[in-house]
Design brief:
The chain starts with 7 loop residues before the first helix and ends with a helix. A four-stranded parallel beta sheet has the order 1-2-6-7, with helices on both faces. The radius of gyration is 19 Å and the shape is globular. The chain is of the alpha/beta class and 248 residues long. It has helices at residues 8-22, 34-45, 65-68, 72-81, 86-93, 99-106, 135-139, 144-152, 159-166, 169-172, 195-204, 221-224, 226-245, and strands at residues 27-32, 50-56, 95-96, 123-125, 128-130, 180-185, 209-214. It has a domain at 8-63 and 167-245: Rossmann fold (3-Layer(aba) Sandwich). Helix 1 (8-22) crosses helix 2 (34-45) and helix 4 (72-81) crosses helix 8 (144-152). Helix content is 47%, strand content 13%. Pfam families: Abhydrolase_1. InterPro entries: AB_hydrolase_1, AB_hydrolase_fold, AB_hydrolase_sf. It comes from Sphingobacterium allocomposti. One of its GO terms (molecular function) is monoacylglycerol lipase activity.
Length: 248
Amino acid sequence: MPGRDADFADFSDDLSTLLDVLGIERTVIAGFSRGAYLATEFYKNHPDQVAAIILEDGGSVAFATTFFKLPPDQLATFFESVRIPDEIKSRYFDVYDSEFEVYSNFYDKKTGGSQFHNFGFIRQVKDKWIGYGGLMEYMHMQDGSHYAKLLFQPQSVSRYAASIVLQQPLAIYETLHVPMLILDAVGTPDLFQNSAENRELASRFPHLISYRAFDCADHNIHFGCPEEFLQAIRHFLHSLVLRSEEPS
């Protein structure tokens, strides 16, 4: 976790600086879930560095929209359900004696291989090691009461946690000027039921926004249906090439 309370704008500024250092003038910015909101923040703050945007189940609709549409009893049921199952908690969120123990917990035996990327999730804390330890607290989503405070009193939580709730994608994309691909997971149960809002946004910019709904996943499309996901990405990137070849 960062040593200070960095918000989404701080992360977007960091990415902007990285692109400058690498000599990349414009890029296709993409993100999944919370990462999609970070992509939207990057476009908000550094639009001239964005060539196109890919949003996978997030970043296109205000985060709280799904929850504010729920009847009070269903919202209360949701808050009561917010907890990390003991098995998941012990596997991914506990504190461990060795780096290898964390790596083993993250290792997917079905996939095989080195899975070297798992080390990117591992952190040392004094003489111990953690994977996702502290993540839910950092996002202020560790239980129902904290989740409710995040949604209804975002000004009272950390800047980072509040960033996802305070962001207003529709206002940000009122001045959209680059191609966008929205990948919307609509499988059962749909974790974020925003297909109507996504379709409405796409209808505002039919010449810029491509919308794809996937009923093979309820949130994580690239994991639930990887082939369909890659096909959509390839098609969108190919369309960007064709656009660049059109006479101005």
